[in-house]
Amino acid sequence: MNNQKNNNSMLPVAIIGLVLIGALVGGWFWYSSTAKVNTTTTNKMSNKTPENNAELLKNAKPGAEPPWLLGSPTATVTVEEFADFQCGTCAAKHPVAKEIINHYGSRIKFIFRNYPLTTIHDKAYDAAVAVEAAGLQGKFWDMQNLLFTNQSSWSTNNPATFRSTLEEYAQKIGLDVEKFKADMAGLQAKTRVDKDLERGRSLRISSTPTFLINGKPVELPQMTAEGMKQIIDAELQKPPQ
After folding, report:
1. Do 20 and 80 sit in the same domain of this protein?
2. How far apart are CA 111 and CA 90, in angstroms?
């Protein structure tokens, strides 16, 4: 009788324990599935313009004129990159962009746009201005390449050290350093950055890097040399309009 009574008294405790365990397990699965959905949605949408893409492109701001361009101005395929020099993914995709440029040459028009995300990257705007200042001495692409390939060495510097680093880079690529410093402080370089920012915002670009191929955004998984070549090759095969 005692054993039966003890078993009966333990039964409610066991039931409560099982309910608690079930709730915890169910909660864990719910959280896991929710996190997965949220991550997928963010990755999927981060490099997409809205469905009315043609209308958006038609009404978009022009950006800095003339744009920084490689390839042929008359090519039927335009690859337009919006990038932030302090963005780790932008630096990681820089070799991909270089491979695309080298592979296609004059068969494409490659345009680079400055799109510094100033709310999260404290040196992105100054880096963009530095590249434009270098461009005023004909060294835009040299400075662009230096900043991307050396990103890990300057991105965590304090602002004063970063300025010194920019001047070192200017000297390294053969710029007149005093003119470079003056152009960094002037309006011309900053205005070009601001114009590119206006264009990106008018296209509702929310992340970097963003690549547009003939106005169509490239999904992040396709931002490989092979993935972008497939898109470009398909565009090259289309009859001229």
Report:
1. no
2. 15
The residue to which tokens 């405790």 are assigned: 13
Asked if residue 86 is part of any domain, the answer here is yes
Domain count of the fold of the chain: 2
196: domain CATH number is 3.40.30.10
Same domain, 32 and 81: no
Residues spanned by the domain of 87 = 53-236
Alpha helices in 157-239 (DSSP H): 159-172, 177-185, 187-202, 225-236
Residue type, 182: A
pTM given for the model: 0.78
User: pLDDT tens across 7-54, in order?
Assistant: 444 444 444 444 444 444 444 433 333 333 332 223 333 444 445 678
Mean of pLDDT over the chain: 84
Sheet containing strand 68-71, strands side by side? 68-71, 108-114, 77-83, 210-213, 216-217
Question: By CB neighbour count within 10 A (0-12 exposed, 13-18 middle, 19+ buried), where does 227 fall?
Answer: middle
111-155 residue pLDDT tens? 999 999 999 999 999 999 999 999 999 999 999 999 999 999 999
Is 241 domain-assigned? no
